[in-house]
Amino acid sequence: MDFDLFVIGGGSAGVRCARISAGHGARVAVAEERFWGGTCVNIGCVPKKLLVQAGEYGAWADDAAGFGWTIQKGPHDWAKLIAAKDREITRLEGIYRKLLSGAGATIFDGRAVLEDAHTVRIGDKRVTAEKIVIATGGHPVRPDIPGAELGIISDDAFYLKTLPRSVAIVGSGFIAVEFAGIFRALGAEVHLIYRQPQPLRGFDHDLRKGLADALQQQGIVLHPNCSPESVTADGASRLLTFGAGQTLATELVFFATGRRPSTRGLGLEDVGVALNAKDAIRVDDDLRSSVPNIYAIGDVTDRINLTPMATAEGHALADTLFGGRPRSVSLQNVPSAVFSTPPIATVGLTEEQACTMRPVDIYMTTFTPMRHNLSGRARRTLMKLVVDSETQKVVGAHMLGEDAPEIIQGIAIAVVMGATKADFDRTIGIHPTAAEEFVTLRTRTRVTGVAEAAE
Ligand code: NDP
Q: Which CATH superfamily is domain 342-454 in?
């Protein structure tokens, strides 16, 4: 064999797996057809967060008057922002590439296709490897409606030449609500069109309601309970038909309607790698596919599609295969954040999930962040703990509000360790912060779940 390991895909999962495996002494090759660092670095988490921050500066400039500053806010320069973002992404992509070559991995810039369980073809080159890891990630999908090609997807959103004056965003998942906040904060008219009564299906219902209120507060027009029907072009504008025959003319239609694993055209079916109905590679607890020497990590397995999960899986697999330290990554209590405006962050069970299994105590608070008593900006923060009534373990922590991702990352350690409500209570707060509210939630808001049903 030419290599001990061939990794297909140079995103978060693949780069980590290749780099750590090489560090363990394996002879490693990795192929990437588009950009090193994958979705997260190039057209996902990283540039998205920079755009969110661009929006925040605008709001802070407005807030400053309440603190005595006289600031004349000029117009926003979208092209300048995108150029700055591009420079940063180019820098990061270079770092990812260097990390791999520095670790001693052989790099192939090109599309890799499996010819058999041990042979990979990249262009006109053929190489063999003992083990193969598929880390090809996913890609955004448009809904199957007439004119769908007239709308953009998130890949395109990062390279728009100008800020659209108006945009209709279809969907209300992570990407939809994040971009709604970005476009609105930079001055666009934004409509959010979604099938559910509240945005962000799967998140805690109090957060969903709080977010819907916050989106409306900043002038985003919500169209709940609506499915897209068609898109047509009218000169430079797009006409979206949705719901029961409603139409909306905007400069841009943006489909944020989910992602699918990138498994097509890799030769997977030919070598016997089993996929599920959504095109994801089926893996066992050891990340092994149905072919014993072929593994899959990250979004291509469509389990928890988050960068830190992908890197954790890549690292664990490298340690297992080449580090003499077999281990797996828990899918429990994985914290996550939505960089909406304001952001959401969460760890553990939602109230709805928890209360089907056990009686739970709910502790909740909402308040205006201190700075906004002076800024005058209408903003609310919501914090919520879901506590197992019997064991008093905190099984879920949820927050909507400024700094939520920074705060919940710390809270997540406590939840992963199995902290009880009493552990939270005996922790001294840091004053004055929003975070201290998590350790001063004295009054139970309600008891819900199985016990409530039994009463
Ligand atoms: P999500 O799965 O989060 O949301 C998809 C949205 O599209 C839902 O609102 C869904 O509605 C809607 N939808 C799907 N199909 C249709 C259709 N045919 N017509 C109308 N609406 C439709 O996908 P995203 O693309 O936002 O993000 C993909 C994943 O990437 C996320 O789930 C997350 O794992 C990851 N991600 C993480 C981020 C972070 O960590 N901050 C940021 C961005 C992405 P419904 O609810 O009715 O099904």
A: FAD/NAD-linked reductase, C-terminal dimerisation domain (3.30.390.30)
170 CB near ligand 1 (under 6 Å)? yes
pLDDT digits over 379-407, tens only?
999 999 999 999 999 999 999 999 999 99
What distance in angstroms lies between residue 140's CA and the mean position of ligand 1's atoms?
9
Phi-psi region of 106 (alpha: psi -120 to 50; beta: other; left: phi over 0): beta
By the 8 A CB rule, do 193 and 168 touch? yes
Q: What band does 455 get if pLDDT is binned at 50, 70 and 90?
A: low
Q: From the CA of 141, how far away is ligand 1's center (Å)?
A: 10
Ligand 1 centre to CA of 256 (Å) is 6
228 C-alpha vs ligand 1 centroid, how far in Å? 15
The first and second tokens of residue 396, run together, are: 């879920």
Residue 59 has pLDDT above 60, yes or no: yes
Architecture of domain 148-257: 3-Layer(bba) Sandwich (3.50)
Note the pLDDT tens digit of each residue in 324-344: 999 999 999 999 999 999 999
For residues 212 and 155, the answer to whether their CB atoms sit within 8 Å is no
pTM above 0.85, yes or no: yes
CA angle at 330 for the pair 325 and 336, rounded to the nearest 5°: 130
> 43, 175, 339: which to mutate for ligand 1, most atoms within 8 A of CB?
175
Would you say the CATH fold of 342-454 matches that of 3-139+260-322? no
Instruction: Record the tokens describing residue 446, joined without a space.
Output: 């309600």
Query: For a substitution probing ligand 1, which of 41, 145, 195 has the most ligand atoms within 8 Å of its CB?
Result: 195
pLDDT tens track for 357-371: 999 999 999 999 999
Q: Which fold has domain 3-139+260-322?
A: FAD/NAD(P)-binding domain (3.50.50)
Task: Report the nearest atom of ligand 1 relative to the CA of 140.
Answer: 25
What is the average pLDDT value for the chain, to the nearest integer?
97
Q: Which residues contact 98 (CB under 8 A, 6 or more apart)?
A: none
Instruction: Check pocket membership of 338 for ligand 1, CB cut-off 6 A.
Output: yes
Q: Report the C-alpha gap between 409 and 240 in whole angstroms.
A: 39
Report whether residue 172 contacts ligand 1, using a CB cutoff of 6 Å.
yes
Residue ranges per domain, the chain?
A: 3-139+260-322, 148-257, 342-454
> What's the pLDDT tens digit per position in 165-183?
999 999 999 999 999 999 9
Q: Is 431 a catalytic residue?
A: yes
